Amino acid sequence: MSASWVAACVRARSMAQLRVGAGASRRLAVQRSLADALPLLADTPYAERLAQCADLGVAQRAIWDTVLWQLRVLAGWMPARGTQIARAAAGAYERDNIVDLQLRLNGGSAAYDSFDLGALATSWPRLRTAASAEGLAESLRRSPWGGTGQGGTAALRDVLTLVWIRRLAAVAPQAQSWAGAACALTVTRIVLVERASPSPRILQLVRPVLGRTWETARDLAQFRAALPSSVRPVLRGIEAPEELWRAEAGMRAAVEADGLALLGRPRPGPEVVLGAIAVLEMDAWRVRAALAAAAAGAGSSEVLDAVA
Hints:
- 65% of the residues lie in helices and 0% in strands.
- The chain is built from 16 helices and no strands.
- It has helices at residues 3-17, 21-29, 34-37, 47-50, 56-77, 80-89, 91-105, 124-127, 133-141, 153-171, 176-193, 200-210, 220-226, 244-263, 270-296, 302-306.
- Helix 1 (3-17) packs parallel to helix 15 and helix 11 (176-193) packs across helix 12.
């Protein structure tokens, strides 16, 4: 194992150790307001970007900005294979940039500036110059993201999410179960919650992962039974489509558990770095949920309870 991997894994473990964690996130959630919660993050990696924040949306955006910066720092420590993993992971941020760009091109307004991906960008430097929604669609078709099919912002986000998670699984096999869960939750939501048919592009993306049996399912029990056995646990304990948000929370908890297991591997390598990325992303998700609960004065967070 190269010295670069040793250094990258030391850095990755150090970053993961500085996470806020589940217990501190719960303490954030029970605060009476956002103003009460934010000072509790003063000694965390999020503090610098949270300085002067007084708005929930801005604070939540600062959390993601912090994780992207951590990802960029990690990429600088890794050899070429590790950079592939970091770039694939950063696809989630490029996805958000693309969705926001489409919104602007269709006459809407994005709430925030684009994420600064630096060297982790896949196609963003070319896509960002699109002058119309049609031009963006054509540029996407010619990029590694591929065609997105028809539909609005939600449909675009679904397609890009599936492309992103499958790309991550292609360069990091330990993420294959995460891709399976994401595919299952996406099509279950489309069919059972939105009462729509998955687009041809969605079907193209999920069939290699889920097969076709689920396509004739019309209720949650049928969906669960039709999924591959490796994917089926993502819907365990979910009794109605309205509870799918619990399945998503459970999926995130499972990703965190996998990440912690990967972090604990004794041999330095890409698996340890992937584990750190998963743990950092999950920590950011928890902190965002906790800040939302504090801002609402809810006294707790049902989302955080779901991953207890």
